[in-house]
Amino acid sequence: MCTNGACVAPACNDGVKNGGETDRDCGGFTSCPRCGTGLGCGIPGDCSSGVCGVTNACAAPACNDGVKNGTETAMDCGGTCPSTCGLGQACLVSSDCTSRFCGSLTCATAKGCNQLLSSGGAPDSGVYSIDPDGAGGNGPFDVWCDMSLHHGGWALFGKLGESTPSTAKGAFDADRTVASLTVGAVPSSTEFSTWNLSRFDGLGSAWTIRTATDAANDQSHFQYTFYRPAAAATVLPSTAGSNWVASPTMPANLLYLVMSSTSGLANTTWLTPTYQPAVGWEVVGVSIATLGYRRGDFGGGQCLDAAGQTQLCHAPSGAIQNQSGLTGTFTSAFGDADGVAHAHGRKGTYWIKDANAGGTP
Fold it and tell me: d(Cα 194, Cα 177) in Å, to the nearest integer?
């Protein structure tokens, strides 16, 4: 190139294809920028897309070209590509990932449904894989996530059908017919399904449990009880799941809140249940059940084991315990404060959230 009567060295901004450039002011073994789509190239490194086509022209970024280019966060995935990225691959947002969770710019498995929801990658209810204790611990497993009710982020960990016999009982300390726990929230009539709550011990004391009773077995009215560890208390989910009411010290470490789907909140602040040896947990005027059923006699048998440990089950029909001193049992319910007649054999579902719910759930 001649400038002012003198030849000058090739440059990357002289408007001429010269030097080692493969097209004007780009490409080649030079310090020039890479070439854009359609410009000349000799090798992939000449092109901003990293792809030099068979006609020696730079190709546009594509989601199947074997190169990380365009909006992709890893090779041929993420960004605007239809394919999402696998575990360990780079991401910017959770929707870049097949796991629906991006942590520290890397696709990972979320610890629970609430982390999935809050990350923005999983706004809809459905089946997701979670890993409460993180990589290197127990393996991930699939759960059904409720992403809408009570601010969302709840993992289904138990179901009890209305026709489950009283002989089927047990604490939340075993995996039972867990395949059904990834098929929506409505229990079949004889269902008895649980995750072992020790699976969630990686959450430490940062959890909230929601129990839901289908009061008429037709999904028209639900009664809810919520539990979470009190401030500074150390309560693992497995501790609650295998020894929920047997110890008089347990209630002091937990807070509760109750709610009806038709009458609203029965209490608006988290409260500490009291413990009475004759009846277990009790709040004046509002008896509460825990993870399973409880009985007024608290003397073992039926839905309790010999030590008085509450268990998930349906007791035989009889008087319902709404107030202290009455016998009978009812799951996940709170007294008769909502005006709904209690009865045996009601469907129940049980949920855990990977967060201490503040305010109202």
Answer: 7
The Cβ-side half-sphere exposure at 328, using a 13 Å CA radius, reads 19
Three-class DSSP category at 260? strand
**CA 36 to CA 121: how far, in whole Å?**
33
How many CB atoms neighbour CB 123 within 10 A? 12
Task: For residue 112, give the nearest of 152, 153, 157 by alpha carbon.
Answer: 153
What token pair was written down for 200?
């969630």
- Residues 83-114 have pLDDT tens digits of 999 999 999 999 999 999 999 999 999 999 99
Distances (CA, A) of 274 to 142, 171, 245, 310: 36, 21, 11, 16
Going by DSSP bridges, is the β-strand pair 274-276/347-353 parallel, antiparallel, or unpaired? unpaired
Classified as helix, coil or strand, 238 is: helix
- Cross-strand partners of 271: 256
244's enclosing H/E stretch is none
pLDDT reported for residue 21: 94
Tens digits of residue pLDDT in 12-21 = 999 999 999 9
Secondary structure letter of residue 241 according to DSSP = H
> Tokens for 132?
């409460």
Residue 269 Cα distances to 226, 246, 257, 357, 358, angstroms: 11, 25, 7, 11, 9
CA distances, 297 to each of 158, 199, 317, 324 (Å): 25, 32, 15, 10
Distance CA 324, CA 28 (A): 86
